[in-house]
């Protein structure tokens, strides 16, 4: 996997509002990486930029990106289950819009069905999360606020 190309690809995506309707996207059933932004203004349709990323995450779970983004949304409302979302709830920014961009990748995550190539892809997804974090730190000078513990 060319991590540099994958990072560049994510920063060509457009922000989408994180709400229940957005979670209906069938692409979000797949594993992958995602970025979150919290803003007082609507970002939907704007190109993803490093400065606006407040959280970088990934998932290789059976529920895919949809499950993880739903957990972030619930966490932002104070429900335990996603550390980044829960940290957001403690910052009391609930009135701010939550936007996301996701980069799904092809991999079967069900244990009985996945192949050795699927397992390698799942490892690449975890690695890609760190490449994204490193890219943001290089561009902005710090890691995203909600990733810091």
Q: Termini distance?
A: 29 Å
Q: How can the largest sheet be summarized?
A: 4 strands, antiparallel
Q: How many helices? A: 4
Number of domains: 1
Helix percentage range? 25-40%
Low-confidence segments, given as residue ranges, are: none
| SSE-based structural type | alpha+beta
Name the helix and strand elements from N-terminus to C-terminus, one letter apiece: HEEEHHEH
Strand line-up in the sheet with most strands:
1-4-2-3
Give the C-alpha Rg: 15 Å
Q: Based on the structure, what is the oligomeric state of the protein chains?
A: single chain
Number of strands: 4
Mean pLDDT: 93
Notes on the structure:
With about 150 residues, the protein is α+β, with helices and mostly antiparallel strands. The chain has one domain. The chain contains 4 helices and 4 strands, in the order αβββααβα. The chain has helices at about 5-10, 65-75, 85-90, 115-140, and strands at about 15, 30-40, 55-60, 95-105. The protein has a 4-stranded antiparallel β-sheet with strand order 1-4-2-3. Helix 1 packs across helix 4 and helix 2 (about 65-75) runs parallel beside helix 3.
């Amino acid at each position: 996997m060319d991590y540099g190309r994958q990072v560049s690809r994510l920063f060509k995506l457009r922000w989408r509002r994180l709400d229940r309707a957005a979670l209906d996207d069938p692409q979000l059933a797949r594993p992958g990486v995602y970025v979150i932004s919290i803003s007082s203004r609507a970002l939907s349709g704007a190109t993803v930029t490093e400065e606006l990323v407040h959280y970088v995450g990934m998932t290789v779970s059976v529920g895919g990106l949809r499950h993880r983004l739903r957990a972030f949304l619930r966490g932002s409302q104070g429900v335990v289950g996603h550390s980044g979302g829960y940290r957001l709830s403690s910052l009391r920014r609930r009135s701010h819009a939550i936007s996301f961009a996701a980069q799904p990748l092809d991999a079967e995550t069900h244990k009985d069905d996945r192949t050795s190539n699927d397992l390698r892809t799942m490892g690449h997804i975890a690695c890609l999360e760190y490449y994204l974090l490193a890219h943001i730190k290089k561009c902005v000078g710090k890691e995203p606020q909600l990733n810091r513990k």
